Amino acid sequence: MAANNNQRVTIPALQSKKENKEKITALTAYDFPIARIVDDAGIDLVLVGDSLGMVVLGYDNTMPVTMDEMIHHTKPVVRAVKRALVIGDMPYFSFHLSTEESVFNASRFIKEAGAQGVKIEGASKKRLKLIESLVEAEIPVMGHVGLTPQSIHHIGQFKVKGSEKGEARKVIQDAVNLEKAGVFAVILECIPMELAGIITEKLKVPTIGIGAGPRCDGQILVFHDLVGYSSGYLPKFVKKYADLHGIISQAVGKYKEDVQKGVFPDDEHSYHLKPEAARLLKKIRKA
Ligand code: KIV
């Protein structure tokens, strides 16, 4: 069953897009108004990514983001979205504890926030076991391989993963292992397009690329990068479709100028007394 524009996007509907060779569209969102815009545009999957930490909360990387922050931001996204699949991103150290604690944290996205699944970075043996436990607990999981931003302290900087033979083999194996563990889709981040093509052919579940070229089954971008809302560095793979930072800066500058010059608020943006009240106040003023 393919997803149409009004039907709620389910995991089977998302997966059938791969079979039907229809591209999957995905974006991040972290609040109500943006999630509403993204959903109204007919985007299939909304990820409440831990990129929240960098683009909204002002952290240098995603590591400080907490479970409570993720739940707080997932709730308004769920309230806004009527059609898309909403996935919550497990933040650093929310799934590195015991299986019980990790499964409990994942369940908060479903029970407390109302999301339909979670995303987890990495494919270590321990991670694969946890994914099996999550699937067993009826929590759908999206995998994430290639560049995994939560490994920033290991890798030192965000860079392309899998350009060399050994690393490429490892990324393929990671994706295959994730599929075996039961993920419903895999994010491929910042890997060569040829490698993404091979993985996409190998897997039955959809691949969703970010910086992984056109051969993936779908694409995801960070919303703030796409609309030019972020002010910092943008990686090569980002296509900026608008300059919101410029538009908003201009509006704020003009507001400041108008207030300083006394041009705002003008008559059009002010209220008036009713005539009898105006007459009464005039009398009081004179008395
Ligand atoms: O946190 C995030 O936004 C992500 C996407 C970049 C896939 O993980």
Structure characterization notes:
By secondary structure, the protein is α/β, with parallel strands linked by helices. The protein has 2 domains: about 10-245, Phosphoenolpyruvate-binding domains (TIM Barrel), CATH 3.20.20.60; about 255-285, no CATH class. The protein is built from 12 helices and 8 strands. An 8-stranded parallel beta barrel has the order 1-2-3-4-5-6-7-8, surrounded by 7 helices. The termini are far apart. The mean pLDDT is about 95. 3-methyl-2-oxobutanoic acid binds next to strand 6. 3-methyl-2-oxobutanoic acid (KIV) binds next to strand 6.
Short summary:
Helices cover 44% and strands 13% of the residues. It has 287 residues and is an alpha/beta fold. The protein folds into two domains: 11-245, TIM Barrel (Alpha-Beta Barrel), CATH 3.20.20; 257-286, no CATH class.
Features:
287 residues; TIM Barrel; 2 domains; eight-stranded parallel β-barrel; 12 helices
